[in-house]
Amino acid sequence: MKATETLHDRGQSLWLDNITRDLLETGTLARYIHELSVTGLTSNPTIFDHAIKNSSSYDAAIRKKVKEGKSGEDLFFELALEDLTRAADLFRPIWDRTRGVDGWVSLEVSPLLVHDTASTLAATKALYARAGRPNLFIKIPGTKEGLPAIEEAIFAGVPVNVTLLFSSEQYQAAAEAFIRGIERRVDAGLSPEVGSVASVFISRWDAAVKNQVPEALRNQLGIAIAKRTYKAYRTLLDSPRWQRAFNAGARPQRLLWASTGTKDPAASDILYIRSLAAPFTVNTMPEATLKALADHGALGGILSADGGDGEEVLATFANAGVNVDALAVQLQDEGAKSFVSSWRELMGVIAAKSANLAKAS
Predict the structure, then answer these.
(1) Among this protein's residues, is 139 annotated catalytic?
(2) What is the distance between the terminal CA atoms of the chain, rounded to a whole angstrom?
(3) Which residues pair with 14 in a beta bridge?
(4) For tag attachment on the chain, is the N or C end more exposed, with fewer CB atoms within 10 Å?
(5) Which of 330, 309, 317, 326 lies closest to 214, judged by CA?
(6) Please, are residues 161 and 199 in contact by the beta-carbon 8 Å criterion?
(7) What pLDDT is stored for residue 300 in this prediction?
(8) pTM metric for this prediction
(9) 139 forms bridges with which residues in the sheet?
(10) What are 326-329's contacts with CB under 8 Å, separation 24+?
């Protein structure tokens, strides 16, 4: 039995952190579903930037859309929705079988809206409506400005993948926004069955402190943060407030481990997969990490509901001078800026391709 199947059988969902037209056209995504237990998919501006820049697979579609007068963000979202609706259809049997627990794909709103609550909410509703797929999450950053948009989107019945979370505190703020939206739906007599995941980024923690801590502490911070967050997750799920919402018919918001590709070449390529196995969570992994897990994965134990040794490890980082609270804020800010940078590069790639293809036609 492949480690991917074992991990799935332990109750964790394996989602692919990638989307390209080639994955769809060649049947590779379908094969990952059937052979590697992949049950969902996430995307972001960087993924689409690489997919469009490094492939000619989008050229015909771009040429056609340019002739129709499309450009910039409008052209991109048409391309993205074409890919993601096809992917959503591949995962739809899983979504149906699990009654909406699994089988999701994700599309992010423009990162340029990261500090604009009203525009984020409007874009969220519009993209979900355009997709016309019940198993499509719209990704909204869990920033100060994003939290009200998350609550309003959930209240409006739009499934949300809360992205750019880096700490237990940021996760809990996102969970609070989710539950407020659900409670408002219950009070309004609306169905509380609105899907959501909260995506906590892992590997960027270790990349941020690799030159600041002793060798003995390398590649341990991200996992310790995850353990602290998992404890908070399990505590929230067991709380009377959440239990009341679930009793009214709500779906729990699941915790998702993001950024789980190992950035340190000296570390195991499945470090964050092996260490973060837990039922009723999601691990969205880069394609190379998924293949490595299937090829030579050896899983460890299941995460402890009480966070295990997470707090002890975090104490050693504090003693080494790492302020995790300040670093969480920094990482979220840097993550938002990184997505903006990727977005601008993506828009540049689309503009250049559009111009070149228009000349050649």
Answers:
(1) yes
(2) 50
(3) 38, 283
(4) N
(5) 317
(6) yes
(7) 84
(8) 0.96
(9) 108, 161
(10) 327/205, 327/208, 327/209, 328/166, 328/167, 328/169, 328/170
